[in-house]
Each structure stands twice: as C-alpha cells, then as structure tokens.
Amino acid sequence: MLSTGIKGLDNMLGGGILEGHVIAVVGLYGTGKTTLGLQFIYEGLKNGENCIIISFDEDEESIIENSKAFGMGLEQFDDKVQIVRLEAVEVKKNIEKIESELPEIVKSANAKRMLIDTISILETIFDEAERYKVLAMLRKILKSAGITAVITSEADKYNPNSSKYGLLEYICDGLICLKVIRRSELEEPILGIEVVKMRRTKHSRKPKPYTITEHGIVVFEEAEIF
User: Does domain 7-219 have CATH number 1.10.760.10?
Assistant: First the structure.
C-alpha cells in the first residue's frame, strides 16, 4: 500500500492506497482536492519515488508555489517529479496523439504515482459519449502502466458523493469525497471526508471531520462530524 501522506486518511483507508489503483477525489471548490493530491505526490517524492503531475488548470510555476504554501517544496525533487500542463482544448483536438504519447511519458518517467488535476476541465469540453470514452482510455493507460493515480474532480453541486458528470467514479477503483457539511445555515460549516468506495480494501465508511492547515489536510479520525 502507498501512504497518502495524511495519517488519518490512511487509517480510514485501512493503511493507504493499493498500488496500481486509480482513485477519484471529488469535492466542491475550496475543499482541498488539489492539496490532497499534492500531499499524495509529496509523500512519494519523500520516499524516493518518481511522480508525475498532469494539470488541466495551473502551470508548473503555480503548482510549485501552491505546494510551497503547504510546506511541500516540490522544486527540491526536480529530478523525481515531472509536471505536465495540458490544455483541454488541445487534448480534444489531438486525442489520438495524447492516447499514443501519454503511455510513453509515463514509461519514460518510470513513475510510481500520478496526480491528474482536475479532470472536470477536460470533461467539460466533451459530450457525454465522448466523455466516457476519454475516461475509459485514460484508465486503460494508467492500468497498463501499473501507476497509482489520484484524479481530482469537481463534485455535482446537488450530490456531494458524485463527480460533476457522474462518470469518473465508475472508471476508478476508489472514491474519496470531500464535503462541506452544514447543520444549519446559521452555523459555521464543517469539512468532512468520506471513503465512499475502495475496491479490494477493507475501509471505514464513516465520514470524519478534517481541516486544511498550513501543512495540508489533517483528518480528525477520532472525532465525529456532529
């Protein structure tokens, strides 16, 4: 198993993420999806593992600056981490090229971990039929490479247990949901994390509160939501 770099989450997962698994991390804006993904990558880098970050949102400089804000200096591992910025529109135009080149990128990097952030941007520019084909193609590439991947996605605004288009969770081995929980409109919201699905792993299904600190996400596994 691979540690996520978040002790409380590892315990919820029964020790971490199984090697070769593709995991979806779903949540609304500001719930810490990218932060969780960066912690997963940073933990691998500290262990001497090669890692890849594919971003459909921010460029390399922004990703490095974001990681620094949480005490995760990715720049010190420049020989171990490869950061690739992909423009979603260009991916759509050249989907066959991506399908042929991405496996080579993964293979040449000899990577053990990958973060894809955020898949929602790519999904937005495809129709439903194309969307599923692209996600299935991505899963096939990751599975063939044997890499362990975290893919972040915006949540459906009406269903926090679902990705924006409701497809990602079906091509992934696991689903972790980050939620904003309100007991009432007048009370301060609580952040809650839930492991909704995790194949071949005995995991906790009970949501737990978490917070985003200057060192990243901290899960309070001994606490209750309410």
Answer: no
